[in-house]
Design brief:
Structural class: alpha+beta
Shape: elongated
Distance between the termini: 60 Å
Strand order of the largest sheet: 3-2-1-4
Order of helices and strands: HEEEEH
Low-confidence stretches: none
Number of strands: 4
Length: 137
């Protein structure tokens, strides 16, 4: 479920554990995903417990993988002013998280394959244009 929906559940309490995941590109033509969080069990923490050099925007809580100090923010970094960005996906069980992540990856593979076809056509068109320039000389 989306983080915004999770906030309304009784499971959203400091100290509880949940599963989170996300895999998303903001732009498929970019080399890195905007967020890549494989399914991981995390504990819910208050932002009052953040290290001094860390900030979490648009939420009063954050997540930390069990036994680690890594901070996972509920929202990605596409937010600005009144738009929070896209939220992390939160699940109560490992199976739910893994199944969602697998579906996300399969959809992403399809999107990347379509982007590959589009990019190949774009480069073929560019090559054709440059070849036409050579023929005109």
């Amino acid at each position: 479920m989306r983080f915004e929906d999770f906030l309304k559940t009784p499971e959203c309490k400091i100290g509880n554990t949940v599963w989170v995941c996300d895999y998303r590109y903001n732009d498929l033509s970019l080399s890195k995903p905007i967020r890549h969080v494989p399914p991981v069990e995390v504990e819910i923490w208050s932002n009052d417990d953040l290290p001094k050099n860390k900030r979490v925007y648009y939420s009063s809580i954050h997540f930390r993988p069990i036994g680690k100090k890594t901070v996972i923010a509920p929202f990605d970094n596409t937010g600005y002013r009144s738009y929070t960005g896209v939220s992390l996906n939160v699940f109560l069980t490992e199976d739910e998280a893994k199944n969602y992540y697998i579906r996300t990856c399969k959809n992403l593979i399809g999107d990347l394959q379509q982007e590959k076809v589009r990019a190949m056509k774009e480069f073929d068109d560019k090559i054709s244009n440059v070849s036409e320039e050579i023929k005109q000389i």
